[in-house]
């Protein structure tokens, strides 16, 4: 599903450059649950951003479902964000001005899903995550764990084939973290959604099939 | 989708209530002004457009003057093949017109039978072709008809004039657009004038007083008509008038050339001000949106990750700005609707009407302005933010934006430059008017009481005996130092000029203003005589003597008036010059004192053409004299009420117009300052909000409140400083140019400009102080916890 060939990423610093990723080769198959681990500054977040099309690599090739991403237009990338990719952030990144319901609905709006279908799909997700009672609340009225539930609900509502999660439990205590990770596992197993997460925690990594260790911009 | 945009836009506006309020308030104020300015311009540009044959309608001018000789039109209608029709427009008298117990005074417009075919004044009652067929016909405006007859059908009603003439109403005009140059109240046939024994000798080939309007045939050559006019001048005009040059002025340019209001000012000046205010408003909108959008970088990032295209982000931003602009457009329209009558009161001659507010051109420009504002104010921040790098945006990181900051700063500077220029302008104008009001007029302005004698006395004989008796009494009164009757008083001199030629040098011509006075005028007004003597009733030879002022003497190039005479151009009578007056200011200090010639009208008494009774009194004893006047005038039946005023009040009436302009400038000054302040107010508030954490940390580390206030306002004050430095020379230059129109003017001292700067600094400090003190007083623990 995802294929990286000789991917590198560096930023200009003064007259030289600072390499963050160096010659990464990586293949992730559909249905996998992969955890990327490594110390701070090792480049794991950058890798996730490149995978999620938030950043462009400085060199190398990236094939997403066989298509070369580095040759895609802005429009095509937006299409991928709409249809194939879901994102979960450490700081949840819900839109403060929107209610829980509207936050979850937003990706469907961008996907031009008709109104009635939108309603039923959002209702399904709310039901499934047990947050129906919270649907008219605003993000700042929820606890961190609840916000992250909404964040995940928002990520899966458009039925993506892959979810990229950037330290999804980083801001949560361990009980909440376990709930979230079980949810990911469930999504992976029953909905066959490919999941790629960045994490610090061994316990969280244990929920996945495979761990990718990254250190100083290289995969170990 | 669109509903979703509106919903989110609404919530965003609501969340930032302060900004939204500032934005809408600023926009509404600015747009209300723009609405009025546009109405004024529209009013000017649509002037006289109601005439059907406007393209073929011309005024026959003498050089630049709008008048012509009376007999000209007859010749043109008879001999000029290119002239299809035409009419003269004359005013001669303003009689009282009565129907049963209702009476009113209106100027009569005397016209020819071609009037209704030349101009377009549709009749509500009657037929244009027959309305002015004979001498007993009268045509009224709808207002006059309504006042006289109410709702009764006016046709066939007989009205009588105060001079006993009687007329049958043959037509009533439909209401004339309020901005029309020609708005006749009462129309009579010109034959009344030509049959009048007083009028016939005046209506020769020399006197220029008739408005001559012609309708040319389609495709007529103006040059050919003008050529033929020149032949008429050579063949028929009187001696002394043969050098006149006649030309045709298109009637659509009439308002521009001969209108009451300064056309250029209203069209170009007001358009400029409108653009200025729009500029201020746009700057604010861009600045505020820019500032707010910096706090929304993350939101935009998330939306993009969720699949929003660039277009979706732009649409979101435009919806928000569009919503603000739409609300303001509505509010401003409402404000304009309510303030329109107030404005009409303030600026005379404007006569805007409410229907103009829902006329198509106005609504068109209203929507266009809204669209333009939205495009500019929404586009700039939206374009910037939608182009952000995704990875950074999601983290809420802003790429350093030095370019954005620079333009934001530049915009603030522009706003304050405009504010300073307006304030300085207003200060200078005020000083200039004060200077003119306090200036030495070279006559006794404080002690002379002037009483109007132009009251429309019903019984002239009774009035004459009563007032002449009063004058005799006043002359004996101990509180009265002098009494005079005159044609004019300073400040109210008529536009009455003629060319005079000195007896000793027939090649010299001097253009002089002329007036009629009695022998009491010079002593009553305390005017100094520089040479010679005042008129004397004891010398029979004084009946044709004249007094000139010093300016006239200079223009004539005389060193003494000994044995000097003057005669008018084309006239043969020699007027001996018996005295020279000081250059007293008979008109506002805006103009220099022009050459003036006084004719002698005999001793003080009530007579035709003498409109003023002037009494020099000790102010403390004025009450007794006024009581006496009141008693006498109370006993004389008249159409108008007895009224009096001191000479300085009469004189200062001349400054009403410029004071009106100052009021307008003050309004715009206030608005520009308000908008500029609203802008920095919100920006400081935003800066405080963005730097909450920094302020919290600084306070924990021991920063004082003053330190925090300085921190927040320092940068803005620098900008205000730059603005003042830029504005000072600009304001000086503009006001220097403006002052050139005044013969007597102040010099712009440095402290006027410094004062304007000081005012702006003070206002800016107050505005920012409020916000920054609030930020500085906040509890630091709270600030740090929220992060």
From TrEMBL, chain A:
Record GO cellular component, one term: membrane protein complex
Q: Which CDD domains match?
A: ABC_MJ0796_LolCDE_FtsE (cd03255)
Q: Which PROSITE patterns match?
A: ABC_TRANSPORTER_1 (PS00211), ABC_TRANSPORTER_2 (PS50893)
Question: Which Gene Ontology terms cover its molecular function?
Answer: ATP binding; ATP hydrolysis activity; transmembrane transporter activity
Arranged from A to Z, the UniProt key words for this protein are: ATP-binding, Lipoprotein, Nucleotide-binding, Translocase, Transport
Source species, domain of life: Bacteria
Q: Where does the sequence pass through the membrane?
A: none
Residue span, ABC transporter domain: 2-220
Q: Which family does it belong to?
A: Belongs to the ABC transporter superfamily. Macrolide exporter (TC 3.A.1.122) family.
Name the chain's protein.
Answer: ABC-type lipoprotein export system ATPase subunit
TrEMBL record, chain B:
Parts of the chain that traverse the membrane: 21-39, 265-292, 313-343, 363-388, 409-429, 661-688, 695-713, 719-736, 748-770
Record-level Gene Ontology MF annotations: transmembrane transporter activity
- Give UniProt keywords alphabetically: Cell membrane, Membrane, Transmembrane, Transmembrane helix
Q: Which residues form the signal peptide?
A: none
Question: What does the record say about its membrane topology?
Answer: Multi-pass membrane protein
Q: What is the official name of this protein in its record?
A: Putative ABC transport system permease protein
Domain named ABC3 transporter permease C-terminal is located at 272-387, 666-780
**PANTHER family recorded:** ABC-TYPE MACROLIDE FAMILY EXPORT SYSTEM PERMEASE COMPONENT 2, MEMBRANE COMPONENT OF TRANSPORTER-RELATED
Which stretches make up the MacB-like periplasmic core domain? 20-231
Q: Where mainly found?
A: membrane
Q: Which Pfam families does the protein's record reference?
A: FtsX (PF02687), MacB_PCD (PF12704)
Q: Where in the cell is it found?
A: Cell membrane
A GO CC annotation recorded here is: plasma membrane
Q: Which residues form a coiled coil?
A: none
């Amino acid at each position: 599903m995802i294929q990286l060939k000789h991917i590198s990423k560096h930023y200009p610093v003064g007259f030289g450059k600072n390499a963050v990723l160096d010659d990464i080769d990586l293949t992730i198959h559909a249905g996998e649950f992969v955890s990327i681990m490594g110390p701070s500054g090792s480049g794991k977040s950058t890798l996730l951003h490149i995978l999620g099309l938030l950043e462009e690599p400085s060199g190398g090739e990236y094939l997403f479902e066989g298509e070369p991403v580095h040759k895609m237009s802005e429009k095509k990338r937006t299409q991928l964000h709409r249809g194939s990719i879901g994102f979960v952030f450490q700081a949840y990144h819900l839109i403060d001005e929107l209610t829980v319901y509207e936050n979850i609905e937003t990706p469907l709006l961008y996907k031009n899903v008709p109104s009635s279908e939108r309603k039923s799909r959002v209702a399904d997700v709310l039901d499934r995550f047990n947050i129906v009672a919270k649907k008219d609340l605003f993000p700042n009225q929820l606890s961190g764990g609840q916000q992250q539930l909404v964040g995940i609900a928002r990520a899966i509502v458009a039925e993506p084939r892959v979810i990229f999660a950037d330290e999804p439990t980083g801001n949560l205590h361990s009980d909440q973290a376990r709930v979230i990770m079980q949810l990911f596992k469930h999504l992976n197993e029953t909905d066959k959604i490919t999941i790629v997460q960045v994490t610090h925690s061994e316990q969280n990594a244990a929920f996945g099939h495979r761990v990718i260790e990254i250190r100083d911009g290289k995969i170990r | 989708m669109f509903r979703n945009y509106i919903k989110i836009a609404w919530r965003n506006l609501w969340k930032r209530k302060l900004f939204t309020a500032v934005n809408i308030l600023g926009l509404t104020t600015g747009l209300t002004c723009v609405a009025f300015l546009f109405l004024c311009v529209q009013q000017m540009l649509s002037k006289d457009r109601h005439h059907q044959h406007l393209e073929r309608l011309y005024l026959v001018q003498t050089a630049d003057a709008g008048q012509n000789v009376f007999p000209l039109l007859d010749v043109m209608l008879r001999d000029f093949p290119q002239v299809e029709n035409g009419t003269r427009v004359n005013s001669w008298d303003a009689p009282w017109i009565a129907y049963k117990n209702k009476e009113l005074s209106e100027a009569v417009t005397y016209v020819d039978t071609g009037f209704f075919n030349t101009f377009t004044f549709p009749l509500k009652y009657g037929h244009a072709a027959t309305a002015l067929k004979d001498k007993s016909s009268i045509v009224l405006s709808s207002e006059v008809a309504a006042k006289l007859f109410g709702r009764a059908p006016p046709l066939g009603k007989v009205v009588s004039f105060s001079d006993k003439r009687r007329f049958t109403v043959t037509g009533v005009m439909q209401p004339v657009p309020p901005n029309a140059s020609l708005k006749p109240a009462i129309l009579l046939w010109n034959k009344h004038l030509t049959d009048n024994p007083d009028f016939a000798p005046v209506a020769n080939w020399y006197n220029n007083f008739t408005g001559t309007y012609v309708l040319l045939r389609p495709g007529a050559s103006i040059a050919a008509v003008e050529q033929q006019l020149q032949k008429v001048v050579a063949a028929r005009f009187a001696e002394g008038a043969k050098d006149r040059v006649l030309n045709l002025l298109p009637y659509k340019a009439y308002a521009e050339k001969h209108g009451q209001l300064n056309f250029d000012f209203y069209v170009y000046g007001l358009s400029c001000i409108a653009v200025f205010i729009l500029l201020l408003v746009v700057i604010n909108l861009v600045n505020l949106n820019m500032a707010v959008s910096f706090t929304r970088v993350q939101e935009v990032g998330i939306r993009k990750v969720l699949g929003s295209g660039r277009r979706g982000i732009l649409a979101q931003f435009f919806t928000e700005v569009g919503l603000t602009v739409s609300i303001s457009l509505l509010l401003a329209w409402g404000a304009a609707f309510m303030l329109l009558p107030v404005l009409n009161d303030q600026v005379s001659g404007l006569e805007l009407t409410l229907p103009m507010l829902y006329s198509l051109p106005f609504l068109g420009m209203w929507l266009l302005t809204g669209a333009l504002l939205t495009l500019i104010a929404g586009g700039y921040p939206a374009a910037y933010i939608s182009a952000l790098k995704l990875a950074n945006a999601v983290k809420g990181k802003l790429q350093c934006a030095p370019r954005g900051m620079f333009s934001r700063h530049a915009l603030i500077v522009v706003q304050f430059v405009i504010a300073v220029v307006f304030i300085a302008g207003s200060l200078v104008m005020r000083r200039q008017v004060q200077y003119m009001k306090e200036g030495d007029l070279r006559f006794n302005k404080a002690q002379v009481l002037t009483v109007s004698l132009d009251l429309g006395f019903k019984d002239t004989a009774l009035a004459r005996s009563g007032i002449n008796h009063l004058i005799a009494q006043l002359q004996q009164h101990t509180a009265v130092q002098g009494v005079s009757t005159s044609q004019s008083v300073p400040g109210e001199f008529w536009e009455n000029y003629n060319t005079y030629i000195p007896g000793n040098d027939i090649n010299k011509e001097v253009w002089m203003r002329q007036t009629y006075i009695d022998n009491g005028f010079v002593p009553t007004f305390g005017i100094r005589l520089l040479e010679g003597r005042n008129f004397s009733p004891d010398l029979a030879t004084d009946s044709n003597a004249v007094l000139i002022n010093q300016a006239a003497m200079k223009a004539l190039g005389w060193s003494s008036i000994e044995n000097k005479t003057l005669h008018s151009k084309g006239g043969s009578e020699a007027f001996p010059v018996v005295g020279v007056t000081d250059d007293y200011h008979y008109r506002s200090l805006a103009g220099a004192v022009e050459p003036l010639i006084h004719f002698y009208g005999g001793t003080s008494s009530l007579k035709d053409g003498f409109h003023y009774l002037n009494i020099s009194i000790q102010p403390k004893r004025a009450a007794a004299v006024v009581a006496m006047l009141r008693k006498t005038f109370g006993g004389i039946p008249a159409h108008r009420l007895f009224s009096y005023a001191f000479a300085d009040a009469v004189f200062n009436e001349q400054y009403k117009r410029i004071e009106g302009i100052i009021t307008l400038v003050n309004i715009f000054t206030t608005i520009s300052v308000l908008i500029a302040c609203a802008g920095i107010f919100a920006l400081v508030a935003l800066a405080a909000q963005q730097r909450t954490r920094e302020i919290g940390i600084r306070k924990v580390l021991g920063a004082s409140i003053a330190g925090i206030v300085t921190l927040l306002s320092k940068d803005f004050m620098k900008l205000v400083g730059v603005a003042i430095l830029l504005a000072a020379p600009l304001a000086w230059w503009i006001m220097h140019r403006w002052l050139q129109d005044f013969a007597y003017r102040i010099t712009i001292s440095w402290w006027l400009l410094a004062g304007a700067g000081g005012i702006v600094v003070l206002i800016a400090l107050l505005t920012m102080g409020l916000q920054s003190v609030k930020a500085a007083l906040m509890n630091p623990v709270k600030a740090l916890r929220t992060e």
